């Protein structure tokens, strides 16, 4: 049975416990053996992490030891999948650029705050992960992120919608859903998910379900006995 680890905590405003429970239910339905932890110490055992098929962080804002980031990074490099949403994955540890390099982006703003109505535009044909999914509208935070140009973008949202100093620039399509590789591992991110009710929206839930499975499948496809080129982080990556 595929093993998954969900680690939740950090800022309570994102309802990490409730979101983690939604994800746990999805993964159980997909046949995963799921462990749920509310402490970052779950990342302390690097060898245990390498035995997983999937790691799901649900942790907004906080600080983490470099050793634990290195453990997650090494596990993903070996083929373990990494999948998450919103601030729970791409606003987890603002001081740690290694985490941001691995996940593919970092939140910086949500003009208009919660309740901003905006459209999610699916990049048709970009990936089977979005086959059959149509554009949809949500009323929630519209995430503006700094993103890795290596990401494969599967969905975007158009800025600006809400007023602000950014509106004097040209309109831009901001990535909402993306995938990337980290060594032999697969990484999946969806910027939606401000609170648990957003993750219960059927199309959002389906996007996450597909992302979880896609990331976990990478473990079996990683070349046996072949290690990805090791990356142990930058010495100056934190304050």
From TrEMBL:
Q: Which residues form the ThuA-like domain?
A: 3-215
InterPro entries xref list: Class_I_gatase-like, ThuA-like
Top-level taxon of origin: Bacteria
Which named protein is this? Answer: ThuA domain-containing protein
Q: Name its species.
A: Cohnella cellulosilytica
The root-end lineage is: Bacteria, Bacillati, Bacillota, Bacilli, Bacillales
